[in-house]
Amino acid sequence: MEKKMEAKRRIVLVPIPAQGHVTPLMQLGKVLNSKGFSITVVEGHFNQVSSSSQHFPGFQFVTIKESLPESEFEKLGGIESMITLNKTSEASFKDCISQLLLQQGNDIACIIYDEYMYFCGAAAKEFSIPSVIFSTQSAANYVSHPDMQDKVVENLYPLRYKDLPTSGMGPLDRFFELCREVANKRTASAVIINTVSCLESSSLSWLEQKVGISVYPLGPLHMTDSSPSSLLEEDRSCIEWLNKQKPKSVIYISIGTLGQMETKEVLEMSWGLCNSNQPFLWVIRAGSILGTNGIESLPEDVNKMVSERGYIVKRAPQIEVLGHPAVGGFWSHCGWNSILESIGEGVPMICKPFHGEQKLNAMYLECVWKIGIQVEGDLERGAVERAVKRLTVFEEGEEMRKRAVTLKEELRASVRGGGSLHNSLKEFEHFMMTL
After folding, report:
1. Residue 242 contacts by C-beta under 8 Å, 6 or more apart in sequence?
2. Which terminal Cβ of the chain has fewer Cβ within 10 Å, N or C?
3. Rounded to 5 degrees, what are φ and ψ at 105?
4. Which of 225, 230, 207, 209 is nearest to 217 (CA)?
5. Local structure of 259: helix, strand or coil
6. d(CA 240, CA 230)
7. Do residue 63 and residue 35 come from a single domain?
């Protein structure tokens, strides 16, 4: 068995060209590389990981022929573009694997691919290479499978599965088609999820029974020592600004790398933040405000108001910000990466806007872990002000913070020797020896 492992030490990673999916898969690559595996990353022409290759010394990057131009990806939208990408990428990926096998002398232990890049399964089967699926979402997200839509969610009565993560996803038939493809594990040998048992023990138990193959919770990946927290350039000037603020007073606002807001929503949020009398650090990317060129295009009185109480950056070192003593809350889109990072620093959250599986994540934050507040309905200044005050001024915010700190300690314990991540990694290494 040892001889077999020594003969095949290369792992091929296939990420989606989207930051929220790329980062955790590359963090996994760093962890596996530290265990002695060689890493090859297969990517398309746009949103390339190799542009940040300085973070990954020794990694091999291979570019396959782009089957879907970036302009077409944006025009089709997320669901349709993923279905099209999978239908058109299989042949070029098979050619890539064929070339790698020739170059590497058949030295491929397995292919680990993002669950939304399911075309990889056919190539793995054709070349008799073991495949492992990587999920960047919570284990609980699997409860949204289409054949369970009318069932009541266990422990979340009266919510049905159809109430959870499908709003805002476009035509349901196409969304369900993508769900069915993702849920089909084909000939995969295992599933890796960027989660941790202390947050999702019941969901993980359910999932292991449901999928019929090994499930490895290898999260939180951002807390592993060798992993970069971001592959994008960040503005660190905000740290100096945070250093001047009172402890637990600042609301940090970031709606992810793809989230967008209407100009009206930004105006209402600006007024609500300022009316709360709490300082805020706001990440506003180029293109994140629909129909404008960014914060500079907003009315002068809003710009003046924001500059007096807040600080605006285009990108922040998020984990460092969340760990800063001045930060008392995180206004988030509720992406799974952001949730893990926030819990990892013991910071409670405000949830809005969100779509897809982020709706389920927000529900868990508020109803299960009780470390977050959802802002329901339209985004208006009164609701913003109330949410901020609940988290930073009122007693319920302090109770949420205590619960968040407890979860933080559990996450940190999972990474240490004997913790759940440590043990799951050992189990996955043993699994790799059996392939």
Report:
1. 250, 281, 321, 324, 326, 327
2. N
3. 65, 45
4. 207
5. coil
6. 20
7. yes
Residue 74 identity: E
Cα gap 30→430, rounded to integer Å: 18
d(CA 238, CA 2): 50
Structural domain containing residue 274: 237-393
Provide CB contacts within 8 A for 76, sequence distance 6+: 84
Statement: residue 189 has pLDDT above 70: yes
Largest distance between two CA atoms of the chain: 70
Residue 210 has pLDDT above 50, yes or no: yes
Which pLDDT band, with edges at 50, 70 and 90, does 1 fall under?
Answer: very low
Residue 7 lies in a domain: yes
Clarify whether residues 250 and 220 are in a common domain.
no
The answer to whether residues 264 and 288 belong to one domain is yes
| More confident: 10 or 184 | 10
Q: Would you state the structure tokens that stand for residue 173, as one six-digit string?
A: 């038939």
Whether residues 195 and 253 fall in one domain:
no
- Total structural domains in the chain? 2
Together in a domain, 183 and 34: yes
Q: Reduced to 3 states, what is the DSSP secondary structure of residue 281?
A: strand
> What does the pLDDT average to over 393-415?
95
- For residue 143, being part of any structural domain is answered with yes
The percentage of the chain sitting over the pLDDT mark of 90, rounded to a whole number, equals: 50
* pTM > 0.90: no
Does residue 262 sit in the same domain as residue 326? yes
Residue 309: which of 385, 390, 374 has the closest Cα? 385
Is there a domain that residue 408 lies in? no
CATH number of the domain enclosing 290: 3.40.50.2000
pLDDT digits (tens, 9 = 90+) for 159-175: 665 555 554 555 556 76
Q: pLDDT tens across 81-124, in order?
A: 888 888 888 999 999 999 999 987 778 999 999 999 999 999 99
Mean pLDDT of 188-205: 93
3-class secondary structure per residue, 188-233: CCEEEECCCHHHHHHHHHHHHHHHCCEEEECCCHHHCCCCCCCCCC
Is pLDDT larger for residue 69 or for residue 135? 135
pLDDT, position 264: 84
